[in-house]
Amino acid sequence: MRLVKIGIASVNTTVGAFQANTDRVLALARKMAAEDVTLGVFPEQVIAGYPAEDLVQWQGFIDHQWPQLERFAKETAALPLVSIVGVAIAQQGVRLNCAAVVAGGRVLGLVPKEKLPTYNVFYEGRTFGHGQPGMAESHQGVPLGDYLFQFDFGVVAPEVCEDIWSADGPMRRRSYSGGELVVNLSASPFRLGFWDTRRELIATRASDHQVTIAYANAVGSNDGLIFDGGGFINQNGRHVLETPRFQEGYSQAVVDLDRTLRLRTENTTWRVDRESWVASGGMKVPTLDCTAVVRTRRETLSYPVPAHRSFFLPAPDTRRPARVALCEDILDALALGVGDYFEKTRAFKLFGIALSGGRDSLLTLLIAHRYAKRVRPEDPGSLIQAFYMPSPYSSQQTRDAAETIARELGVPFQVVSIEEAFEREKAAAQQMLGDAKLTPITEQNIQARIRAQRMWNWSNSCGGLFLQTGNMSEKSVGYTTIGGDLMGALAVIANVPKTVVMYLLDYLQETTGLEGIRKVLAKPAGPELAHDQVGEEELMPFPILDACFYLHAGEKLTPSEMRTALTAMFPEVDATALGGYVDRFVKLFHQSIYKWVQAPLSLHIGNLDLDRERALQLPVVTGSAWLRDA
């Protein structure tokens, strides 16, 4: 047996906080060594924080990383531990995103990332250079390139994040060249439903290439990207370890690397494929002999037996029901995003929310409170200030709902009427217009802008983080006010569809029993900027709106294709009415792009959202003839 204890770390970094990030890695490495971990795996770009984006173009940003990597090596020199750490370097004018192999007080090698994602939320292709098969260079006297590393426990094959997502990644040639333990350093953002995809991909790669895979992922939030952490160990297709998500720390498990080699001898497909690769002149990856650098401590390790003490019977099923998993993942991700933005910017003292008594501001409050409960369990409400700013159209029902939820959560609550300001601003606007009359939409927008201005004034004076509360569905069709409810310092649910907002609130009402949630849900959704406003009456039913958004913005369907899809999805709705909804959505969607670009930074929880810098990049000025049916 060749027993190896692998530690998988999730580290919450801040971009550019080189020393603090390295201190976090050091603390975890020391804990690993104290528990006889053989190999410690840390996330991608853990020294600098991720994503650094264009900061890597500053030489000073790159130069600050190497001394911290050397410090890490020096301070772990006495530990019987091999560590794989994410770092960026500059090599002959090119920036490389690398996995650094550290042991015995030295940086033993650097393996650069080969597959650079430049899609969705990623921009690595415009800032980093690609590692190459057969690359063999030197950086600061350290081997840099396509290498394997031989230790006293086995052969390690480092790689970085996207390398595992390509079937043509480096894992194939490295496994054929003798790599047994593939170590993948990742900073993979949270995306709805992506956990299972990630889990199964790693199982597939481990099985295809007959290797043991150790995968570590970043945790925490930088700007709008949320990293859910979690990691895996998978041996030749068998799951060994899944680490906790949404929390910093590490988990460990023991594997027998002799089992990986034995399974290779049994797998004729893998052997034949390798023989073909060798015969066709496949490029063999060189192995650096590191056996003399560090002597790992493995004599105390025990054989990895199932916790339920059976090799044949299934382990107890600890999976959460699908509804619980979806809701808890979204809530945990958004609370982490809110909290890290609040803490890492170091600019704010508390949260501020304009609480309308409606669904969106309620969910935003509950997310902020979820974070506050973690950091101030004795009095979470003290970290939040809620304001209710009624106009002539505000109902007693929404005021009561807002007061109730604030009281239940222990959140300070103030009522600050905008009625007088509304009348003054209407008069001033009318004066500017002369003989022209104020439009009804202008009167609605005046109310929203007064509220936003007051929230900004409060924020400026007390260091409050003004949370924007709008949802993705209404944002997509411009059902929001520039300078008003579109404004804020951080958009918490701007990438959460309205149907998901309501689904989450139903779940929270069931699980918490809060009366304030029940009161909010009892009233039809509407902005209360005019008499008897109901959002679905002014737009369309929210399930249809969200379907239109997904089909057009996500699946890139034309209006005629959308009508076909919606007819299948909503057979109970008249086809003519559906066609009208499609036409209305498409018109509003493209007319509203100019609004999206003025929206605040938003938190990302999926592959589809309206943050122009991250996901859906659309020109503001464009013709619409191509949208008409041929």
Automatic annotation (TrEMBL):
Give the annotated active site. Answer: 44, 113, 161
Q: Which positions fall inside the CN hydrolase domain?
A: 4-257
- Chain sites annotated for binding L-glutamine: 119, 188
Extract the Gene3D superfamilies matched here. Answer: Carbon-nitrogen hydrolase, HUPs
Catalytic activity of the protein? deamido-NAD(+) + L-glutamine + ATP + H2O = L-glutamate + AMP + diphosphate + NAD(+) + H(+)
User: In which pathway does this enzyme or protein participate?
Assistant: Cofactor biosynthesis; NAD(+) biosynthesis; NAD(+) from deamido-NAD(+) (L-Gln route): step 1/1
The enzyme's E.C. designation: 6.3.5.1
Which keywords describe this protein according to UniProt? Answer: ATP-binding, Ligase, NAD, Nucleotide-binding
The residues the record assigns to binding deamido-NAD(+) are 445, 474, 595
Top enzyme class, one word, equals ligase
Q: Which InterPro entries does the entry mention? A: C-N_Hydrolase, C-N_Hydrolase_sf, Gln-dep_NAD_synthase, NAD/GMP_synthase, NAD_synthase, Rossmann-like_a/b/a_fold
UniProt: ATP binding residues: 354-361, 469
Q: List the GO molecular function terms.
A: NAD+ synthase activity
HAMAP family cross-referenced by the UniProt entry: NadE_glutamine_dep
* Family label: In the C-terminal section; belongs to the NAD synthetase family. Belongs to the NAD synthetase family.
Task: Quote the function comment for this protein.
Answer: Catalyzes the ATP-dependent amidation of deamido-NAD to form NAD. Uses L-glutamine as a nitrogen source.
Give the protein name, as stated in the record.
Glutamine-dependent NAD(+) synthetase
